[in-house]
Amino acid sequence: MLTGKQKRFLRSKAHHLNPIFQVGKGGVNENMIGQIADALEARELLKVSILQNCDEDRDTVAARLTKGTKAELVQVIGNTIVLYKESRENKQLMLPKVK
């Protein structure tokens, strides 16, 4: 579980990122979850954009993505979801320590 301080740190890092996945009319599927999980392993932090024609609401999409990829939900802002998952081989981000 991420602390508030860690989430703030991750939000600041994610601010400059562009969404690399889009959830559209088909919603969230297994293929998408697999691709996002692979991208999280490579990048640790990424944004997912929810398109206007998506049938599911953003909270449902966020919940399904975090559960499917076993990632942490950093934030949902507008139609953008920020996800974080610590990489096993490719560690890039050093989170602030929990006191």
UniProtKB/TrEMBL annotation:
<dbReference type="InterPro" id="IPR001890">
    <property type="entry name" value="RNA-binding_CRM"/>
</dbReference>
<feature type="domain" description="CRM">
    <location>
        <begin position="1"/>
        <end position="96"/>
    </location>
</feature>
<protein>
    <submittedName>
        <fullName>RNA-binding protein</fullName>
    </submittedName>
</protein>
<dbReference type="InterPro" id="IPR051925">
    <property type="entry name" value="RNA-binding_domain"/>
</dbReference>
<dbReference type="InterPro" id="IPR017924">
    <property type="entry name" value="RNA-binding_YhbY"/>
</dbReference>
<keyword id="KW-0694">RNA-binding</keyword>
<dbReference type="Pfam" id="PF01985">
    <property type="entry name" value="CRS1_YhbY"/>
</dbReference>
<dbReference type="GO" id="GO:0003723">
    <property type="term" value="F:RNA binding"/>
</dbReference>
<dbReference type="InterPro" id="IPR035920">
    <property type="entry name" value="YhbY-like_sf"/>
</dbReference>
